[in-house]
Write a structure and sequence with these properties.
By secondary structure, the protein is of the alpha/beta class. It contains 16 helices and 13 strands.
């Protein structure tokens, strides 16, 4: 069976890029039956070198979320004559005629159109509306066309079924995981010294990430513990720049430090030295940073939302992330109660064992086989 994987985000960031990179890495290690074609852009083509002779790479230099995805990408995929194409998101090239499966990581754009799209868009309102309508059309077609739909949590399965009841039989839950981050790179710049009482958060700064409330929480906590600091890291884009401006405008520069897009080595250092990672998001599909924190013995303070509760269990300090004083209270408690902090680390270490990229790769191969078998049965 020849399988194609759309890996145009390979190696990019903490979300989809991390997912597709780790999936391919572990498929190479554990699938000795199928052959794979990995589609990459020019920007990340050299980042991936197949280590398994069953894997090859093909350049598909088509921008993510672009019109070219719909008229150019189908031809690139079709030329490889794959038995099955795996698109790790909703943005399926609708003209592609072959069998495919998709991975849905969250339904934020469906559940919260205004807060997660209009508020998170730099486009003119008319342009934004047209793009959003295009998104809805592509999602509907992707859901209808896919023979199987991988979702990363029970929460996403529940939400997606509510929007598309007919897709329920297609859903397969394959949870993400986290490996220990490599420390082969140089450690942080010696001048980088946030002190011993710092928390951090990582990722994009979209409105649903609720970073403004976190900033207010740090301000409240600093009244009782002046040494407290918050480190923010994420890829520098429009929303990160707006966040930096907010930090300056609200006079938080002395307690909140934005360090931009950090290397894996720096990210590992943050996990290993922070009092805790704080994740105040109002909506997510999984909780990859929670699992990553467990792997690196870092306590987690997170919003009380279904995906985080599903992933974090009893190892996370959950808060109402709309209430800055509640986040501040959790931060102060972890600083003052080292016994509780150590207990959270122990529970997190145990819970980390529930998530494995090896298991995710194995489950994904089973989904591939199930999809191909059904396709053959349909033809017969």
């Amino acid at each position: 069976m020849k399988i194609g994987i759309d890996a145009r985000l390979y190696g990019q960031g903490l979300g989809l890029g991390r997912y597709v990179s780790k999936l391919i890495e572990h498929l190479e290690l554990h699938d000795d039956t199928n052959t794979y074609t990995i589609f990459l852009r020019k920007a990340n083509y050299d980042l991936y070198t197949p280590r398994n002779t069953r894997f090859k790479k093909v350049c598909a230099d088509v921008p993510w979320y672009s019109l070219k995805e719909q008229w150019l990408l189908p031809w690139i995929f079709f030329k490889e004559r794959c038995d099955l194409l795996h698109v790790p998101h909703f943005n399926v090239p609708v003209l592609y005629p072959g069998a495919l499966i998709i991975t849905i990581h969250d339904v934020i754009l469906l559940k919260h159109r205004l807060s997660a799209t209009s508020a998170a868009s730099t486009r003119h309102p008319v342009s934004h509306w047209l793009k959003y309508m295009g998104f809805r059309v592509v999602v509907r077609i992707a859901i209808a066309r896919a023979s199987r739909i991988i979702v990363v949590s029970q929460s996403v399965a529940h939400d997606l079924s509510a929007f598309f009841p007919s897709c329920k039989r297609k859903l397969r839950i394959v949870r993400e995981a986290a490996d220990a981050i490599s420390h082969s790179q140089p450690l942080v710049d010696p001048s980088f010294d946030p002190g011993k009482q710092f928390f951090f958060t990582a990722g994009n700064a979209y409105p649903h990430k609720n970073i403004s409330t976190l900033l207010e929480a740090v301000r409240l906590a600093s009244r009782q513990i002046p040494e407290i600091r918050l480190i923010l890291c994420g890829q520098e884009d429009f929303f990160q720049k707006r966040l930096i401006q907010e930090i300056n405008d609200r006079g938080y520069a002395s307690i909140a430090h934005h360090v931009g897009c950090v290397s894996d080595a720096v990210l590992r250092w943050l996990y290993e030295h922070a009092v805790a990672i704080v994740l105040p998001s109002l909506e997510e599909g999984f909780g990859l940073q929670i699992v990553e924190a467990f792997v690196h013995s870092c306590p987690v303070i997170a919003s009380r939302i279904p995906p985080y509760e599903e992933i974090g269990g009893d190892a996370v300090c959950f808060v109402d992330a709309r209430k800055a004083f509640e986040i501040a209270g959790a931060m102060q408690e972890l600083l003052r109660d080292n016994e509780r902090r150590c207990a959270m680390i122990q529970r997190g270490t145990v819970r980390a064992g529930m998530f494995s990229w090896n298991a995710a790769a194995h489950a994904t191969v089973l989904v591939y086989a199930e999809s191909i078998y059904e396709a053959k049965e349909t033809i017969v």
